[in-house]
Specification:
The structure holds two protein chains of two kinds.
Chain A: E1 2-8, E2 11-20, H1 25-36, E3 42-46, E4 50-53, H2 55-70, E5 75-78, H3 82-90, E6 98-100, H4 103-108
Parallel strand pairs in A: 2-3, 2-4, 3-5, 5-6
Antiparallel strand pairs in A: 1-2
Helix pairs in contact in A: 1-2
Chain B: H1 9-79, H2 84-96, E1 102-108, E2 116-121, E3 124-129, H3 141-149, E4 153-154, E5 158-159, E6 167-179, E7 182-194, H4 195-202, E8 212-216, E9 222-224, H5 236-242, H6 244-254, E10 259-264, E11 271-279, E12 284-291, H7 292-295, H8 297-343, H9 359-405, E13 419-426, E14 434-442, E15 445-453, H10 457-475, H11 481-494, E16 502-510, E17 515-521, E18 527-530, E19 533-536, E20 556-559, E21 565-569, H12 571-574, H13 585-591, H14 599-614, E22 623-630, E23 635-640, H15 646-659, H16 664-684, E24 690-698, E25 701-708, H17 728-739, E26 742-748, E27 751-759
Antiparallel strand pairs in B: 1-2, 1-7, 2-3, 4-6, 5-6, 6-7, 8-9, 8-12, 10-11, 11-12, 13-22, 14-15, 15-16, 16-17, 17-20, 18-19, 18-21, 21-22, 23-24, 24-25, 25-27, 26-27
The chains are: A alpha/beta, B alpha+beta.
């Protein structure tokens, strides 16, 4: 799983690429937690690069969302492709996340 | 590999080195041979010339001695008038001198009566008179020739028939007196040399085995020759007629030349070289014949020795090469044997020790490293394989346990006509996170669910086992699926740091009236298959269980009509991918479904379609299906008791039979019987009544119940009629009794309740 991250103000923008499924999500989870756990900045995920999201990938976002909201920080999911948003929708998770149309919007929303 | 194997390095190297050495030696040997040959030949010729010269010198000196003695005698004879006694004394003394080559001497003067001649004879010196009439010196050429020429001359060799009776040559000096200024011939002094003497001088020329020498006179007559018959009897010119190679030799010898010429000797029959030279004093020629083979015999001997030495040298070289190479390649061969055995798995075998620091030494060190790496690699591999096999074994056990966790269809459910159910689950790996469950908390209700744990494999399977137990346990305590999901969610969230979640669709069906209460926790909406087509069973967006504590779940209600079906599935079905990474999709799934299909048949169709679609692509997610068909508790129909209502009854009977898969004959009979019952009620029970029909199947019987509020009438107790008594109505009751297997009547309050049963075919 490839992804890039950059610090914008007190938020970290993470842009994963490709498929986030049972094979790739454990690595992604570890990497995200390692990079962000110590500081716990607000997290802004740029989901535009995700082509496929499985329930295993969904779990990672659920986990991050729970941890971050417990710490009083925000998690914003930006620009998901329709099929990705559908997965959130199907699992009934849409209402538990903050979505934004773009990264810009996601950062501004804080 | 053996040392002498033609493919071995030792053999090839030995061959190459030996071949090269042989080639170089061969060239050296050849050059040496040519040079040596020239040298030896020149040497031999030199030697031959030297020997011949020495012999010539000896002959010359002998002839000179003869000449000198003749001159000595001549000068004495001229000093004073010839006094015979003195001459005779002098002749005698000269001939008897020891060591002199002179055979005989004489003075032949016409002025004297006696021509004294002294010669060697047995026991001393003998006297002869050359003037005697037997001999008469005046006719001999040794006398005439010098007299005619006026100079001293050697005669041709001849056989002397005078005193000596030997073969000889004579040196003659003419004597002249110059008295009163007038030169006057006095006589001839002669000195003879025996050819025997010359023969003795020529014989040492036989320096070679088959070589020989000979002398010829000025005219070519043989003076000496190994073939005695030739001496004096023939000339070299005559012999040359038979010996072509001798012609040139003869010509040159007679011309007084010296030199070498090739010659095929008839004496020895060998190719030879002939050396010839002139003896100046007499004009004779000396010839030395040397066989070529003997001339070069030294060379051959030398060559033989060289060849033997070279042969020994080569054999020694070959042995040396082989020994050295054998020593160098021994570790290589040992390594090769070791490699063979290591290749067969003997990793513990000791490698041959190679102490040298050369390439072979390095190879042996590398080899040892390789052996150790191989050994540890194979050991690791063995351990890993064992571990993997262990895991695989355990996974297999886990798989069968998981399969057992999923409920199988109870046998007794086959007798429950209200619904038919089929289910299957196929994990993508050995174990998976999908599951389903169903049970009847009471005889009127069916609880069923389908669920999908996020992720897959062992982690999902463990979570699945826990969730499934939790769901079943909770469902036993409440009939409200929303409540079940809520409690289960709360329970899981309490201790779920990994945020693994599970989507669940849970429902409770009242099998008596088809009432379905369901709730959905983030699961794919099931598909409803009705006679009007397919549609999704929508519900409020509630999250999957296990993550959000605050999640709420909402129960929904749907009335299932008899014959309608539900298909529950997980995303493993709709998201099954083909080789082009296209998903199976909901559209293809619904296309597999049809209203009439049996649940098991529906599942088979879906599975078959998925298999064709993925065409061998390994599944990426667990695949689970639950199909439920509600057959209904029966048809309930309320009619007014008017014959116009009959078509509605027919329609209901037809629908009932079709949804219950009843035989056509059955529907015919049922129509016949119920039409009778209904028309009876229409005609006799009273006006404007309500008639309620209930059609159902139970325990292998088709059952109908007719309830009306008319006057009491018990067809069961209606007396049987004889055939002649049969009226229209009576005939109908008779018919009903004959068709049905059982017929029961009850007057319940103000109602007639008539129940008929017929065994299903």
């Amino acid at each position: 799983m490839q992804f890039t991250e950059k610090q914008v103000g007190d938020a970290m923008v993470i842009s994963p690429q490709g498929r986030l499924d049972a094979t790739t999500s454990p690595g992604f989870e570890r990497a995200v937690l390692e990079k962000a756990a110590s500081v716990q900045p607000h997290l802004v995920f740029d989901l535009s690069g995700i082509e496929y999201l499985s329930s295993a990938g969904l779990r990672v976002f659920a986990l991050v969302q729970k941890k971050w909201s417990a710490a009083g920080k925000r998690v914003v999911l930006c620009a998901p492709q329709p099929q990705v948003l559908k997965v959130f929708d199907l699992a009934g998770f849409t209402g538990f996340f903050q979505f934004a149309g773009s990264v810009q919007e996601g950062l501004g929303g804080e | 590999m053996k040392v002498w194997d033609p493919k071995s390095i030792t053999f090839k190297l030995a061959l190459a080195i030996f071949g090269t050495a042989l080639f170089v030696f061969g060239i050296l040997f050849f050059i040496n041979y040519v040079k040596t040959r020239e040298m030896i030949r020149a040497n031999a010729l030199d030697n031959a010339a030297h020997v011949a010269d020495a012999a010539a010198a000896r002959i010359e000196s002998s002839l000179r001695a003869v000449e000198e003695q003749a001159q000595a005698l001549a000068s004495i004879a001229l000093m004073e008038p010839i006094q015979e006694p003195r001459i005779r004394r002098m002749l005698k003394s000269l001939v008897s001198q020891p060591g002199t080559p002179v055979y005989g001497m004489g003075l032949s003067a016409p002025s004297q009566k006696v021509a004294p001649y002294y010669y060697r004879a047995a026991g001393g010196v003998a006297f002869a008179d050359l003037a005697s009439p037997d001999y008469d010196y005046r006719k001999w050429s040794w006398y005439q020739e010098p007299k005619a020429l006026g100079t001293p001359v050697w005669s041709e060799p001849y056989f002397d028939r005078g005193a000596g009776q030997v073969m000889m040559a004579t040196y003659s000096i003419p004597l002249y007196s110059t008295l009163r200024g007038k030169r006057e011939f006095i006589g001839v002094v002669s000195a003879d040399i025996a050819l025997d003497w010359l023969e003795r001088l020529v014989t040492p020329l036989n320096v070679f085995d088959k070589g020989y020498g000979y002398l010829i006179s000025r005219k070519g007559t043989y003076v000496t020759h190994p073939i005695n018959e030739r001496v004096l009897k023939t000339t070299i010119l005559e012999v040359a007629k038979a010996e072509p190679t001798l012609a040139l030799v003869a010509e040159k010898m007679l011309a007084g030349e010296s030199g070498f010429l090739p010659h095929q000797s008839t004496v020895t029959g060998k190719r030879s070289l002939i050396y010839f030279m002139l003896l100046k004093s007499s004009g004779w020629s000396l010839a030395l014949v040397m066989p070529e083979d003997e001339l070069l015999s030294d060379l051959r001997r030398l060559n033989r020795v060289s060849a033997i030495l070279v042969l020994f040298g080569m054999v020694a070289l070959l042995l040396f090469i082989v020994l050295v190479l054998e020593k160098f390649t021994r570790p290589l061969r040992a390594l090769s044997v070791a490699a063979d055995r290591i290749g067969k798995g003997e990793f513990d075998m000791a490698l041959p020790t190679v102490r040298s620091q050369d390439e072979v030494g390095h190879l042996a060190q590398d080899f040892e490293k390789m052996r150790q790496s191989l050994k540890s690699y194979v050991q690791d591999l063995g351990r890993e394989t064992a571990a993997r096999e262990g895991i695989e074994r355990e996974l297999k056990i886990a798989r069968s346990i998981q399969r057992d966790i999923l409920p199988s269809l109870p046998k007794e459910w086959e007798k429950i006509p209200e619904f038919k159910l089929a289910a299957m689950a196929e994990p993508a790996k050995e174990v998976g996170g999908d599951f389903y469950d169903f049970f009847m908390p009471d005889p009127d209700h069916l609880f069923f669910l389908i669920a999908d744990v996020s992720g897959k494999g062992v982690a999902a399977a463990l979570f699945m086992a826990m969730t499934k137990t939790l769901l079943r346990h909770t469902a036993m305590t409440t009939r409200d699926p929303a409540e079940v999901l809520k409690r289960v969610n709360t329970e899981i969230v309490r201790d779920n740091p990994s945020c693994t979640f599970v989507t669940v669709f849970a429902a409770v069906l009242n099998i008596r009236d088809g009432n379905l209460v369901y709730a959905n926790a983030g699961h794919n909406p099931p598909i409803v298959v009705s006679s009007r087509g397919t549609r999704y069973l929508e519900s409020a967006k509630s999250p999957a269980c296990g993550v959000f504590e605050e999640a709420t779940y909402q129960a929904h209600t749907l009335r299932l009509n008899a014959g309608e079906s539900l298909l529950l599935y997980t995303d493993g079905v709709t998201e099954a991918e083909n080789p082009n990474q296209k998903m199976f999709s909901e559209e293809k799934l619904t296309a597999c479904l049809s209203y009439e299909a049996d649940p098991a048949q529906s599942i088979d169709r879906v599975l078959a379609a998925v298999r064709v679609f993925v065409s061998g692509t390994p599944p990426s997610d667990d695949l689970t299906l639950v199909a439920l068909r509600y057959q209904g508790a029966g048809e309930v129909l309320k009619l007014r008791n008017r014959v116009e209502e009959l078509p509605a009854l027919y329609r209901t009977i037809e629908r009932f039979c079709s949804t219950h898969g009843l035989h056509e004959e059955c529907s015919g009979e049922m129509s016949l019987v119920l039409e009778e019952v209904f028309t009876n009620v229409c005609k006799y029970a009273g006006s404007d009544l309500t008639v309620e029909f209930t059609l159902s199947t139970k325990d292998g019987f088709v059952e109908w119940k007719v309830v009306d509020t008319g006057i009491p009438f018990d067809p069961v107790e209606y007396p049987p009629l004889s055939d002649s008594e049969l009226t229209v109505g009576g005939k109908g009751i008779h018919l009903i009794r004959r068709v049905m297997d059982r017929l029961e009547y009850e007057r319940a309050g103000d109602r007639n309740v008539l129940i008929g049963r017929k065994r299903m075919k």
